[in-house]
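Late entry, written up from scratch paper. The run itself happened at the end of the previous shift, but nothing got recorded in the book at the time, so transcribing now.
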Amino acid sequence: MTRRDLLSSGSGLLGGTLRAGAPVAGRPKNVLLLMSDQHRPHALGIDGDPYAKTPNLDALAGEGVRFDQTYCTNPVCTPARASILTGLYTHNHRTWSNATPWPFEIKTLAHHFGRAGYMSALVGKMHFVDAQTHGFDYRLDFNDWYQYLGPKTKLYADELGRANSGSGLPQIDDLWRDFGDPWLEAREKDGRKGFVHIGRASKIAERDHYDSFIARETVRYLKNFGKRQPFFLVSSFLKPHDPFMPPERFARMFPSQSVQLPATWGKVDLEKVPREIRRRIEVDAPTPEIADADAARMRIAMYYANLAHLDDCLGQVLRGLAELGLEEDTLVIYTSDHGEMLGEHGLWNKFVFYEPSVGVPLIFRVPGRRQANARCAAPVSHVELAATLLELCEVERPAGLDGGSLVPLLAQPGMARDMAVYSEYGLRTKGAKYMIRRGDFKYCFYVNDTAELYNVREDPREMKNLALLAEYREKAEEMKGQLFAWHKPPEMGV
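Output as recorded:
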C-alpha cells in the first residue's frame, strides 16, 4: 500500500477536501488520541511481557500498526506532552520542565484542527501547569474529578502523601504557592520512608478512580458531541503513573511473590556509568525502601496492577466508540508520554535515556484500513505525531514543525528508514543531557558527566558503555557531532 493509497482509501476525508479556514465539505475523519502516563514501551501482553494484562491494547494493536521503537522527546511529563501536541522538540517549544507553563504563542494540534472545523476536546491529564487551554474547546481535568469526589478527595491526598502536581494535586502549582499545601496537616501518615509509597491496593472505590472517571467522561463526550461535527479528542489517563495504588480487584491479580526482579537489578558496574546514574541507583529518594528486594517486587506488582486498570478503562472508551457507531470514522492512536524504569538497572521512574524510560508504546488504527498485527521496527519519535495526524486528516500543516510524517511507515510498516531520533532532558540546568538514536547505536551526551554509547541491537539492556572503549571513540565522536548539528547545548557555551 502506498502513501496515496492510505490517504485516499480511508484515512483522509469523506466527500471533500478540508483546509484551514475553509468550510467543512463532507465529513472528515475524527481523531481519538488515547494517552497514558509512564507506560513502559513493551509492557503489553501482545509484546510478550509476562506480567502485562492488556487485552484491550492488544486487540487495538492487532488491528493496526504497532511501532516497536518509539521515543519520547523528553523523559518527563510536561515537555514530552508539549512535543506531542506541538510537533516541536523541547528547545523549540520552550516548555523546559514540569514547572514551566506552555508558551501561549506556540500553537497546538487543538488550534490546527479547530481552524479546520473540528471540535477539539481534552478529557484528562495534560499538565499545562497554568490555566491556559491551548486551543481546546472542551476540557475536563483533575479539578473536575475533585469536584466529583467531594469529601472523598482526602483519600487521594492520603495516597499521594505530599503536594504532587505530577499526579494532579494540585493541578496547577501556583494555586498553592501563596498559602501552602492545604492538606499538609490533614493527611493520614502510612509509614512510607520517602514521599512516594511503594504501592498497595487503593482505598478509593474503583468507580471513583481518576482513570475510571476519565473513561466515563470520554464516553459521555462521544455521546453528546461525537456525531455533531468532526472531533479531535484527547483522552488522557494518569495510570500507570504513581501512586501505584490500583483498585482492589486489580491489586489482587498481581501477588508480589509472583514477580521477578529485572535481570539487570544489581548488575550495573557503577564505575562505568554517569555519576547521575550511579547516585540514582544507590539511593532512590522518593521511595528509599525499594532497595529491599521484597519492596521492589511489590512496587513492580502494583505498577502492573495500575496498567491492568488503565487497560480496562481504555476498553470502556473503545467499546463506547464502537457502540455509538463512530469506530469506522475515527482514527485511533495510543501512546504514553514517557516510560518507567521499574527496577531495570536498579532505577525507578523516568528521567533517563535507557530504553524503558525514553521509549513508549505507539499504536495506530486507521479507519477503513485494518492491518492484522502490523509492526514497524524503524525508530520513530513523538515529534512526528503532529504532522502525521494533520496529514491523515488532510488538515493544513503549519510551517516550522520539527517532525515529519509517519504516513509512509503506516502504509509500508516494513520500510527501512535511516533517520535519527532525539531526546533531551534538564535543559538550561547543570544536569542537561541529550540523546541521539540512529541505526543500532544510541549516544547520550551529559553536559557535566560521562557520555554513554550503546549498541541497542547487540546490547538491548544497555549494560556495556562503549563510550569508554578506545575502539569506539570515533563512533562516539561521530554521533556527538550529529547530535550537536541537531542542537548545540547552550549550557556548554558552544
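The chain is about 30% helix and 15% strand.
(Scratch paper discarded after transcription.)
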